[in-house]
Structures are given as C-alpha cells and as structure tokens.
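User: Okay, second chain of the day. Same drill as before: sequence in, structure tokens out.
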Amino acid sequence: MYLRITPCRFLPALCLFFVFGAGCSTVPRPRAYNIQIELDPALGTGSNQVDLIGANSSDLAKWSSYSMTEYWRADDAKRRDADKVVMRFGQGNSSVQTLLTIDPSWTRWEATGAQYLVVLLQLSGVATDREGNADPRRLILPLDRREWGRDVSTIELRVQESGIRLMSPRKYRN
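Assistant: Same drill. Structure tokens below.
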C-alpha cells in the first residue's frame, strides 16, 4: 500500500506539531518566593550573616565559582557591589527571618532576568573554597516554578554549623 503525502495532508499535521510543541517549552519561568531562613538553635547566639542575591544565567557562573573566603573579606568589591538582601542572625536578631515576595528586591532581580537565588552564608571554621553548592557556605536555588511545584510559595532554609540546608522539597522532573 502506498501513502501519498500531499500539501493538504502535511500542512495541518505541521500546524498541530507547532501548536502542541510550543506547550512543551523548556524556557525557565522564574517567580518570586518567600524565602524563610531559620538559624539552628545549636549555633546559639553567635553572629551569622546570610546574603541573598538574584542571579541571571550569565551571573550564575561567576557566583558559582567565586571564593566564599574572598566574598566575606571586609573589603570585597563583589560583595559590596552585589544587589543583595542581608539577613543578620545572632544577638538581638530573630532566629527566623523571611524575604517576602513583595520585597522590592524581587522586582529588581526580575528586571535583570534572575533565574536563580544565590544564598551565601558567613560561617566561621570553613577554610576550603569549593565550587557551587559543594561549598557549605553557598546554596544556589532555581527560581523556575516547575522546580518547586505549583503549591509552593515559601522556600525554607536552615543555617546550621555545617552550612545551609534546604528544608523545602523540590519537585523533580524526569
């Protein structure tokens, strides 16, 4: 049996392919989340600082490889110039702090195309710099809504002696 493909049969199939194929896009769809950070009670009243930074895809490689030892030096230009939210924990500060979705930082980060949230922790006792999330003082989180699920509005993190720990489960796609 011979099937002859004519333009009348091919064109509708091609249109359906583009219509349904557009819905399967892998373009990231970032959104703002409430970011709740809790200081582990084991850290006591010691002073800790967490910086939150929105990063787009071109900034991600820089933040992923940047030395955390350098970043936390008093005169570090990259830390000084970063568009960040600073959370201070310890004496006189709450042990649970939240960056809300209505914070103006989200608007600035979204304007630069931020697709990731870089969480940086000032943690004493860690001497070896590592890349990306291998450094316990750094946690890079995707802001793509498909990574978290539609019901997630808050991402919870815990600052521990061993580093930053993600407490909210991610939705893993196959």
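The two ends are 39 Å apart (CA to CA).

User: Thanks, on to the next one.
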